[in-house]
Amino acid sequence: MKKTGIVISSLAGALILCAAFVIPANHPSTDPPKGITDSVWTIVQKSCYDCHANDGNAMAKSKLNFDNWENYSSDKQTAKAQDMCDEISKGKMPPSKYRKNNPEAVPTEADATVICNWAKTLEK
What we know:
This protein is mostly helical. The chain has one domain (about 25-120). It contains 6 helices and no strands. The protein has helices spanning about 1-20, 40-45, 60-65, 75-90, 95-100, 110-120. The termini are far apart. Mean pLDDT is about 85; it is low at about 10-25.
């Protein structure tokens, strides 16, 4: 009976280990969604995507979900881009707890400028 428990535990451990290699982490695709420039996408990947994607934080992705960007109307994309500019420029995004735990993900002033300039190009 003891051997059976060891075998089951070993199999369970092996399955968990295999799942770690098979189940993808919350990483965006390498190609930006239509309407997002490469330079903006680089910033999104670094600073936003962990929370604002299908596998991200429920509240964050309800406000902006980059996995759904192409499904947003052009007016909604423009509004979301302007909101990104405002939130990043004011230092409200990412939130302070995320900033503390992920200092490498904090957008720079140059990143904010890139986001804001891109947002302006979406305005009609």
